[in-house]
Amino acid sequence: MSSVLADVLVVTALIGALALVHRPLGDYMAAVFQSEKHLRAEKWIYRSVGANPDAEMRWPAYLRGVLVFSAVSVLFLYLLQRIQGKFPLSLGFKPITPDQAFNTAASFVSNTNWQSYSGEVAMSHVTQTMGLAVQNFVSAAVGIAVAVALVRGFARSRTGDLGNFWADLVRCVIRILVPISVVAAVILIACGAVQNFGDIHTITTLTGDKQAISPGAVASQEAIKDVGTNGGGFFNANSAHPFENPNGFTNWLEIFLLLVIPFSLPRTFGRMVGNVKQGYAIVGAMATIWFLGVIAVTWIEYAHPGTASQLAGGAMEGKEQRFGEGNSSLFAVSTTMTSTGSVNSFHDSFSGLSGGVLLLGMMLGEIAPGGVGSGLYGMLIMAIIAVFIAGLMVGRTPEYLGKKIGTREIKLAACYILITPTLMLIGTALAMALGKGESSMTNIGAHGFSEVLYAYTSASNNNGSAFAGFAANTEYHNTMLGLCMVLGRFLPMVFVLALAGSLAEQKPVPPTAGTLRTEKPLFTGLLVGAILIITGLTFFPALALGPLAEGLA
Amino acid sequence: MTTNTQKTDAKKTDVKKQDSMPTPTLAPHQDAPTGHKPDGRVGGGLFDPKQLVKSLPDALRKLDPRVMIKSPVMFVVLVGSVLTTVFSFKDPGDWFGWTVSAWLWLTVIFANLAEAVAEGRGKAQADTLRKAKTDTVARRLRGDGSEEQVPGTDLKIGDLVVCEAGDIIPGDGDVIEGVASVDESAITGESAPVIRESGGDRSAVTGGTKVLSDRIVIKITTKPGETFIDRMINLVEGAARQKTPNEIALNILLASLTIVFLLAVATLPPFADYAGSHLSLVVLVALLVCLIPTTIGALLSAIGIAGMDRLVQRNVLAMSGRAVEAAGDVSTLLLDKTGTITLGNRQAAEFVPVSGTTEAEVADTAQLSSLADETPEGRSIVVLAKEKYGLRERHQGELAHAEWIEFTAQTRMSGVDVDGRKVRKGATASVLAWVREEGGTVADDADTIADRISEAGGTPLLVAVRDDRGARVLGVIHLKDVVKEGMRERFEELRRMGIKTIMITGDNPLTAKAIAEEAGVDDFLAEATPEDKMALIKREQAGGKLVAMTGDGTNDAPALAQADVGVAMNTGTSAAKEAGNMVDLDSNPTKLIEIVEIGKQLLITRGALTTFSIANDVAKYFAIIPALFATVYPGLDKLNIMGLSSPDSAILSAVIFNALIIIALVPLSLKGVQYRPVSADKMLRRNLTIYGLGGLIAPFIGIKIIDLLISLIPGIG
């Protein structure tokens, strides 16, 4: 079988599996968030934190829940890293430095999972399992909860109530993330991923060198790393490491896992607003952009010019031999467009234009399909912007799902779309202006600039993948990237929840033949166009000086 | 019932307070088109390029930063122009800096020009109005009935004034005594005089109009300075133009896009420095101005003003911009049956004989008995007999010794006694009673026929005769409401636009149903009282719908105020005019449909130009980015797909295109984009193709052409 045919089959199988699973999973998630009942384990958790899961919250209360919970999480994770040596199973690792501990805490709580450390030589078993793994679950759940609150804003009328944050958070972890992760972890173990709490093995290699092999609860972390679109690898090499990602099948499975919830949430949205077709329109826009990215990167990688590349059948530098061009490209696009940030190959080594596509995937705001929850709310915000412009063109003041997009709504949506571009452009510009960018580059010229741009893009959009060449572990970058991650995660949530509150208060406008049909393919096309043009235009100059300058040379 | 969210809730205040009254409009002057296009489509206003020159001084006056700040996009361009100009003074030999500065200034001026042209059209109309508002002397009645002469400006609410033939009415008020014919052409542009009389729905008079005959006593209802004519002048001059909600929302979106592009440009120098390319301020400003949505930013306010102006050209006076926007959103239209859906009166449609008589016999008798009936129904019988049965209209004088019985409301019959033969036609009960009184019999099927006509929504009139064969009923005249031509198609269009039509009528449900079916309206409200109307509006609004209606009587006022778009007829009472948020000077209720179309057209124009403006940016990047960076990264020259001649020329071409496109689109923004009543889907597809795809492609062509022209200039290309 030719490698191209194999790649086509892999992608086809992936799309087929997602198409098969997104409906039942989306429906199930809708049922979870609309259910009136509480499981016994959940009741126990509510009692222990003193929350009343049946109390409806208006948006300020919901937001308070999100922020307080996340602030406590950052603090807890920071302290855990600072005193990790005091716990058993510390593997002898020292406390993490303050700037790196802040960076890591910000990173995991914001669902970014940017790693300026190497897991196997820095984080103890306790930090990995009690700190990082826990955040992998709850930070993902926070994202989904906020998305569900926004969906309720569309679904509900004449009320300010958006549901209960604690109930959404706990249910998401217990009923959605844990079960999927358990199943996924078991499959990963069965396929060869490791899972233990052993000590570091020191072995002698064939050439006589000493090598330290780190053990750990890898498979369980791996599962939620993908399911929760976290991306923080147990090992520095992330999914390129054979203990995390042993073979072609696990590679496929990991890609499936990181896409499955983001691609299913639009179905949940459609169910909750009472029109599954609206969900299809959203998922259609997500899938179109993702698929275009997959095609573009795979094609560019195969077509990479140069003697070495052509002998290898494509640009193989930085890619695992067992995955090849297709699986590496598919993983790279999926991880950057889902805000996961795990990698099975090194994006720094992709050819210039591919690097540009991966960057653009993040710059779009992580919405195709985006992180769990954040992808949906990001896409819905873009839908609001698209509706606003297109709605006027059908001769009505704009409305989406029966809710008027008036001054207040557009103000909040506009604030939302301003945040990440501001963070990443100013972050990159400051780093460059202060010389901090150049000093951390491992390449020169346009590619070196791409490394800096990639770092700030990844952090601000909560992706977490790195252009591996960038030396991120400096006090400056740890702090700045940490700020980008926190602000890039929580500021948008403020506006999303405020918007949800505003929408929930409205009375619905019944659809007529004169209403813009947002469930039609035409709207999906319009949405894709609006996203590509508006975000594409914002970042065109920066992209021109990085990946485009390199790729077109 | 809470219906406030979607409602244009400021409308009441708008009417009462000058300062909250948005813009332009005006009054029709004689030469303004009255707007009844034969096909009823909303068309554009006229645009004369000479207006650009005439409006230039106004455009320059608008360069005041305090005025400019209201449009964030254009304010940024203004700041950019100042910066590049200052920069050019530091390096006076740099022709590129000067040229870019000049075109940036032109960009700002073109934007102001667009607004000035739109406003200028209102100004001309205001001047015509002012002529009507000459200072008048009022003849005020004292308590004892004697008159005193006071200036019109001294009148107070409640004063009684006398006007006789030739007098200009000194202020708005109601006639409380007398009848007069009044020339209202100053306001309506309609030269035929109208009758104003005390009591009823024809009592309102407007200051500035002229009494042509008779004497009336008027009770003043408005303070001087706040009269209808004053308000119209304020409206058309845009003295207190306020942005409408959708305009504000769009401005916010444009401002946020401007910030995004400001960021993209402001962060570029450190990136470029690293690449080894040092960007000048002129180039950065040029890039910024090309990227921010200047096209829509420049034309936004002109579009709004022109939308109101299009209403004015149709003799509709909108009291607020909100109302025009709301018109686009209307999903329920309440239409009065009489005058809107049907012609004013019922008309004879057929003659139905009872068994034993012929149709021609009925026609002949009906015609004869109706000669003395001057009511419209009576006339229509004579007309039908002539048109359908070829019966020449006989004149009363032709028949000697005839005794004419005229129609009265009491007898409800008309007829004639001639040569011993008596004929009668009239209401069923009256004619039946007459036949019995004359000792005649009633054919069995007369009742059946009459019932059938009633059930079909018509009105039966019996025709009877008493001759040597005795008194008997000959047949039945079928009177019916005649639906105006083309209404069915109109309602069909409205349905395609997603608008539901509800017919309002005082008729019984049976009649109402028949007419509703014939006219093709979606629903009807029969035996409607003002309370029913109000309840219907509230019900629709509670379901999230926006409701539009017309009305003229005082008892319409609450419903007019409640409706999202309430169009009062100018012939109506002052209460109705106060309550509505639009006044139709032609008093043509059918115009409601045009108003909705104008509202939609206004919104579509905004959306189309926004889309166009954003889509334009793609080409500008392809012009400017390679121009800026191809020297340091030669690969980027591959992005120069237009093959522009030099970096300077590329940047300049983009800036020039950006400025010229504003001027090029002024006529479109004033006329509004073409509007057809089709479904939202079709409309979106069409506008996306024209303004989205067109906006993507047009600048590639435009910039290339400008670049070719520039490259012809010696020493540059």
| Intertermini distance of chain B | 70 Å
Strand order of the biggest β-sheet of chain A: 1-2
Helix content of chain B: 40-55%
| SSE topology string of chain A | HHHHHHHEEHHHHHHHEEHHHHH
Q: What is the number of helices of chain A? A: 19
Helix/strand class of chain B: alpha+beta
What oligomeric state best describes the polypeptide chains here?
heterodimer
Number of strands of chain B: 22
In whole angstroms, the N-to-C terminal distance of chain A is 34 Å
Low-confidence stretches of chain A: none
Approximate shape of chain A: globular
- The average pLDDT value of chain A, as a whole number, equals 92
Task: Walk across the major sheet of chain B and give the strand order.
Answer: 10-22-21-20-11-18-19
Provide an overview of this structure:
The complex is a heterodimer of chains A (553) and B (717). Chain A is mainly α. Helices cover 66% and strands 2% of the residues of chain A. Chain A has a domain at 377-552. Chain A is built from 19 helices and 4 strands. In chain A, the strands form 2 sheets. In chain A, strands 1-2 form a two-stranded antiparallel sheet. In chain A, helix 2 (40-49) crosses helix 7, helix 6 (125-155) runs parallel beside helix 14 (374-393) and helix 9 runs parallel beside helix 12 (324-337). The model of chain A has no long low-confidence stretch (mean pLDDT 92). Chain B has 717 residues and is of the alpha+beta class. Chain B starts with 10 loop residues before the first helix and ends in a 5-residue tail after the last helix. Chain B is built from 26 helices and 22 strands. Helices cover 50% and strands 17% of the residues of chain B. Classes of the chains: A mainly alpha (553), B alpha+beta (717). At the A-B interface, helix 14, helix 15 and helix 19 of A face helix 9, helix 10, helix 13, helix 24 and helix 26 of B.
